[in-house]
Amino acid sequence: MKSFSKLLMILIISVLSLSLSPIQKTYGAADGFPVAPPASTLNASDYFTKSQADPKNFPNVSAFSKAYPQALIVTGSRETKSWQIGGMWSKSKIDLNSAFTYDTYHYFGSHPGVDADGMAFVLQNDPLTIGAYGSPGGGLGAYPWSTDGKNNMIKQYIRNALAVEMDNWWNGSGVADDRFDVNYPNTFGVGHLGVVRPGETPLTTKKSEDVGHLQYIQLNKPLSDGKFRHFVVKWTPSVTYQNGVRILGGDLQYYLDDDPTQGSTFHIKNVLDYFKSDKVSYGYTGASGANPTFQAVALIKTPQNAKPVTVKFTDSAGQQIADPVTIPGDPGNSWDASSRRPEWIQYQNNWYQYASKYTADTPDGKDSGQFSATTSYTVTYQYQLRQPPEDFVLQKAVRNDTAGETEFKTETNGQNGDGVTYQLQYTNLTGMGTGSIKDQLDPNTTYTDGSLQIADANTNNEFVTIDDTSFKTNGTIAFPYTIPNGQGFRVRFKAKIDRKDTAETILNKASVGTLFSNQTTIHLPATTGKVIFRYVDRASDMAKPTEIAPEVTVSGDVGKHVSEINADPIRPKAIDGYTVVDQATSSDLTNATFDQASVVDPVISKDDLVVTYRYEKQMLKLTVDPTLDFGQFDNKSVDRTYYIGENQSTTKQPLPFGVTVEDYYGTKGWQLSVQQDGQFKSTPKPNSQDPNLQVAQTLTDATLHLMNPKLKRTDATSNPTWAQEDTMDYQAPVGVFKRYNAHHPDASSKYF
């Protein structure tokens, strides 16, 4: 009964202890795993290889689990040897240019205050690669200055590395190889996380305390709690520039149990300072001293496990001009190929510039998107050859801010008082990395103080204001730093159009050394203009007309009439032997529309005007009424005086009868003579009952007297002063005719 009672008591205590603790399935025979790791589809041996480190005085005990393919064993259990190390290294490297998330579960043992010493997640670029290792015990298989258990100090460490340690032992005793944590809070029985740079000062001393922590995070519960603990590492890259040199940095975040407070973020300013490369291997080290501890890792998600994006660079013919760039990442994370695209590429001693053309096999055809877990993408950027490269070293452009322009161009329009912005872009294509830009403004522009700005790699290509003393003094802008080949910078400054003369353009060029930029032009409204009068022969070929008098150019202020500037008779002019016929204002006379010639008085405008007058040989046109109707009278044969229009009420004959002279301004003076060459005759009336009227009858001794003749101008489009000089000279009858003379001293109109 006693034995039975004792057995019963033991069973009750066992059941009670199970009810007070979380139930975890035990696997005593499964590779030494006390509890099963979380399930995963990953196979650890596909991503890691065992460290090839083979120290002389302590064993490397890492292994892959046969029972759990997703897990790897970092250090062995209590049954294994003491003073051991372990290591597992990735088969592929992480590209620190891209973000990643690494998701795992870690097991640190189940005996707080006894389990030791811990393990570390390590990023490294050690020359020994998978053979890299450090000391056992407090060195966690990564740092130097712990012993091998036989009082031999180990100085070996992992170079070009950064470790996120998960330490379940506080190394703070007075022993030289056990002082790694002496300057930090005592976390005995609980443990801590931290960041350690294994090779920061490892060879300047032989004290473990000088290895030092960059971060030290005290935990709120023991690492060794007999469970697999969720552990996440995240990397967020950031790029800065110093003197034009690209610097890759970023933030490394790590935490336990999905609680960011149980961890921290460590900022890396420049990954090259730590790893000497932007590509690193990742993996685990672990160690024990006198107390061997089973420690393991189960993989849930590896870093940068999406399908990659490949970026290619070709010329216009499709030939590759630079090595492709591979962008890795996590599924669902964003990528942007343009961030990896240089503006200029040098290939076989030639320079190529991005042609603003690309192809992408992404779903939307864009050169950015999200990483896919199943589909890789390719973006190909096209470049164009730039020969000679000197023509593209310095580019200048301008925009009119007052006019609301947003794009920079080589030419624009402006008004007096407008504000403009100039932009200069320098690119080192000729090996000229140092120097200054010289830019002397046109006298018709005034620089706006304090407006000088620069955008370069250091400013993330954002414009920032810089000192403009040198620019105001001598028109120079110093390079911000030594410009690497293929890289450059931009400068901007503002100016105001301050017109001081009648110039119609503001021209500007800049220079760097002996190289000049392109020219920028601001077109201003014209203040003067001109009208050109041409005089050509209408009978000539209008493609190449024959000029019969020199052309006349009238220049003057915009808005004035030609007559205000030149009052000479040039619109048109009188040319001996010629008569002006028509005119046109088209520059292309072969397709011009010609109108009847007239006196014009154009207004001067900013656009030149050409007036072409066409002439023919001198021409006067005389038009005489064919008949004179005196009306109807009785048939008595008597001598008497008859007056034209005497019987107007009967005949309805319009008065007066006259002679029309048309003169196309070609004759300076002319004389009209009217003469009766024969006797008047009646109009035959074949159907008359009177035989005498059936034939024409002559009025014997009849004479025509033109009494009180009057000269009348019928062209009212102009009224020159010389029109008042027209005179008439009437002469008495001589013989059988009467005559009057009408004198016209200078011609430009029609007369009746």
Give the gist of this structure.
InterPro entries: ConA-like_dom_sf, Lectin_L-type_dom, MucBP_dom. Helix content is 5%, strand content 37%.
What does this entry look like structurally?
- This protein is mainly β and 752 residues long.
- The chain folds into 5 domains: 59-301, Jelly Rolls; 309-387, Ubiquitin-like (UB roll), CATH 3.10.20; 390-523, Sandwich (Immunoglobulin-like); 528-617, Putative peptidoglycan bound protein (lpxtg motif) (Ubiquitin-like (UB roll), Roll), CATH 3.10.20; 619-752, no CATH class.
- Helix content is 5%, strand content 37%.
- The protein has 6 helices and 48 strands.
- Strands 1, 4, 5, 7, 10, 11, 12 and 16 form an 8-stranded antiparallel beta sheet that branches.
- Strand 8 and strand 9 form a beta hairpin.
- It starts with a helix and ends with a strand.
- The relative contact order is 0.07.
